[in-house]
Every structure is written in C-alpha cells, then in structure tokens.
Amino acid sequence: MSSCISISELFSLGKPLFSLEFFPPKNDAGGEKLLKTASTLKPYNPDFVSITYGAGGGTRNTTMKYARILKNEFGFEVMPHLTCVGHTQKELLEILEDFSSEGFSNIMALRGDPPKGEVQFRPIKNGLSHATELVALIREYFPQLGIGVGGYPEKHPESPTKEKDLIHLKEKVDAGADFITTQLFFDNQVYFNFVYDCQKAQIQVPVLPGLLPVQSVGQIQRFCKMCEASLPIQLLNELENTDEDKQPKVGTDWAKKQVKGLLEKGIPGFHLYALNQSEASLEILNWIRK
Ligand SMILES: Cc1cc2nc3c(=O)[nH]c(=O)nc-3n(C[C@H](O)[C@H](O)[C@H](O)COP(=O)(O)OP(=O)(O)OC[C@H]3O[C@@H](n4cnc5c(N)ncnc54)[C@H](O)[C@@H]3O)c2cc1C
Questions:
Q1: Is residue 83 lining ligand 1, measured as CB closer than 6 Å?
Q2: Which residues, in sequence order, are CB contacts of 172 under 8 Å at separation 6+?
Q3: 87, 111, 174, 212: residue to mutate for ligand 1 pocket, most atoms within 8 A of CB
C-alpha cells in the first residue's frame, strides 16, 4: 500500500511538504491513541510521517511495530528515526537492515541524548559518537535510503557556539544527509536566520522547520528547558493569562501564525510535532486549506 518515496525527491517537486511526527506509545492505550490520530489525519495526506526512536534504544521494537502499521495499514510514507544510543555499530546495521527489508525508504539519523542521569554523551564500546557517523554508515551500507538529520536553529545545547554546531551540521550533510528537520522554535526569525547561516556555510539541502503546537505553559517550559529553545515573552504571557483548558488554543493559534508566516516566505514545507494528538494538527491543516 505504501509508495516508498525518497523524501529528497519530494522536496525536488518544489511544492511545500508537510509532515507529522509520532512517538512510539508506552502501552496499548497509547497505541490506540496514536492509531486514532493517524486515522484522523490521514485524509490530509501528509507527504510523510516520522516516528521517533526512544531514549536508550529501548523502543527498537515499538518504533518498528508502529512504523510498519503506519506504512502498511495507513499507506503513509514513513520515516523511522534511529539513534546511536546504546547500540553497537553491528546492531545499528541490523536495525537498518530490518528497516530496509521492510520497505522503508528514509531514515532520520540521530545521535540521541545521553542516557538519563548522564550529562555527556559517551558512545558504548563499538558504538558511534556522532550522528555524522550514523549518516556515513547508512550511506556506505544502504546507499538507497534517504536520510534526514536534526538541525538546531538556536544551536544544540551541548555545542559551545552556533558556528561550531554549523560546522558539525555541514559534516552531517557532507556525509550524505538529504535534508534537515529543525528542532522546535517559536519565532520564525530564528528559522530564517538559521537558513541564512546554513546557506553561508554551504549547507545546500532543504531545511524543514519543525513546529510544536504548544498545549500548556508547563509543556512549553519543559520543552524549552530541555532543548534550550527561546520562548517569546508574548507567547508565555498569553499562555499564563489563559485558563488551562484554553491554553491549547493559544498554542495552536501561535503555530498557525508561524505556519502562515513561513509559507509566505516560500519554505520547503513544515513538520508538525503532533505528539500523537490530532486536535492541533487538524486545526492547523483545516485552516491552511481555507
Ligand atoms: C528533528 C529531530 C528529531 C529528533 N528525534 C529524536 C528521536 O527520535 N529520538 C531521540 O532520542 N532524540 C531525538 N532527537 C533529539 C536528538 O537526539 C538530540 O538533540 C541529541 O542530543 C543530538 O542528536 P543529533 O543527531 O543532533 O546529534 P549530533 O549531530 O551528533 O550532534 C550532537 C552534538 O555533538 C556536536 N558534534 C557533532 N559532531 C561532532 C564532532 N565530530 N566533534 C565534536 N562535536 C560534534 C554537535 O555540534 C552537537 O552539539 C531529535 C532531534 C531533532 C531536531
């Protein structure tokens, strides 16, 4: 049922793509929610959907299970994520072989975060240290796969400077990445500046903006702390001055404005961190269709 398209080919068609991100559920109830969301959003024909790879490599089976369902039962073009955390190079090759033989055409190649309680990422014995090495591994053994990588408009938290982070981003692209999906951001200018910096650094692949329709003050504060994204004071004020049950509307309206502003500037597309929930994505997509 799935078409198996290289995402870089989709970019080359020149129309803005839109994609959705799911995460592997922790239990059956979470699984049902994911599938309900997928079914609600299917009629909007996302160009692709992605499914994350949980911390510590612990979701290997769940990521595969739901990637398979999303591809085979819903017909989505699915890009599974893969991280280096806790895996030897041999295991990574086995996982890639599984994805490839199941008919997935694209992989999001990530290093992953350090395991809980550790501040610094340390590769395991015979493991990989950086996403660049995973990209190179995929290119060597699975040259047919499309590869996405993560990019950080406000720099990756571990990086001492934006310049150093860009150098390593360029290494990922030079190793064979086809496109970049960004970390979340709430001010479009942050994205435009990042794209400009990428161009200056001769990074010439599409940079897909990643957007999170915020659901609550607590959520945005947690996420911004984790990834060190800046939080516009206007958005924070609006959320703080709104009753909890109405905060999702504030976050979704903000994301709508972001999408509008981005599309007006001719972006290659946008990626919604849907977090297995359909409401915000639905509202944004319906609004775009108007
Ligand atoms: C779009 C997107 C999707 C994500 N999906 C997932 C997911 O599914 N699962 C998950 O666990 N996490 C996910 N993450 C989070 C990601 O794993 C973390 O941000 C992680 O800390 C870095 O991963 P990376 O692939 O960007 O690493 P890298 O590209 O390896 O970069 C990590 C840090 O190392 C530095 N660096 C890179 N190369 C070198 C080098 N050669 N020498 C010195 N320093 C270097 C970089 O500047 C950066 O500071 C995602 C992030 C994004 C943006």
A1: yes
A2: 109, 131, 132, 135, 149
A3: 111
Among residues 48, 57, 41, 51, which one has the least CA distance to residue 9? 48
How many angstroms separate the alpha carbon of residue 40 from the centre of ligand 1?
31
List the beta strands (DSSP E) in 124-206.
146-151, 179-184
Q: How far is CA 31 from CA 21, 36, 37, in A?
A: 14, 9, 10
Cα separation, 215 vs 250, whole angstroms: 8
- 237: which 2 tokens? 């004020």
Per residue in 194-220, pLDDT (tens digit) is 999 999 999 999 999 999 999 999 999
Residue nearest to atom 36 of ligand 1 (CA): 168
Q: Which residues are catalytic?
A: 21
**What is the CA(205)–ligand 1 centre distance, in A?**
17
The CATH code of the domain at 7-289 is 3.20.20.220
Kindly report whether the global pTM for this prediction surpasses the value 0.85.
yes
Start-to-end CA distance of the chain, whole Å, equals: 29
The label of the residue with tokens 């053994």 reads 141
Ligand 1 center–CA 260 separation, angstroms = 28
